[in-house]
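Quick question, first post here. What does this chain look like in 3D?
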Amino acid sequence: MHYSLLFSRCAAITCYIFFNLSPIVTVITIISITVIYGLGTGGVYYIPWALYTFLADVDEVFTGRRREGVYAGSMTFAGKISRSIIVFSVGATLTHFGFQPKSHIQPESAVNAISWIFFGGVTVLALIAIFFSCQMTLNRKTHQIVSDEIDRIRQGGKINDAGEEARKTIETLVGWPYEQCWGNNVICKKMQSP
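> Answer (accepted):
Ran it through. Tokens below.
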């Protein structure tokens, strides 16, 4: 909630100063931005955790082992590292533009920097996220193929009996030939040796 209020204030200042909007239009704009921001924030927190359960299945195809805990720990660590980098970068940027931490009135350069961080920074990070999410070939259809193949192998199926669609999908997701999946590769053998 604290971040939503901060974001709304920055958006209000941006609308009022840069676009010279009337107070009522500024309020409507802020409400609209806050709703969009709330939906986006929900997606930012929900989507990675929803996707990570599928990644554990792909990892099982590659390694032959279930390692959900490794993925949960990695995601938590990566989230903390990325947030700390963002906080540091924003702090360094604001300091560079003359932000006064204990002052109620900020220089114009600091106000402009805040506006550009919220507009430009968020836009750039969103575009980067969209780019990388478009690279992801794991979707409901491919995950179903992976799940069916995991079930087939668990029930005693042989690696050589894999269907062409399953073989092709798994090779695309894992990045290795199908015969080298299920722990049959140099990397997994090194993980298993003491």
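The two ends are 49 Å apart (CA to CA).
The CA atoms of residues 60 and 67 lie 7 Å apart.
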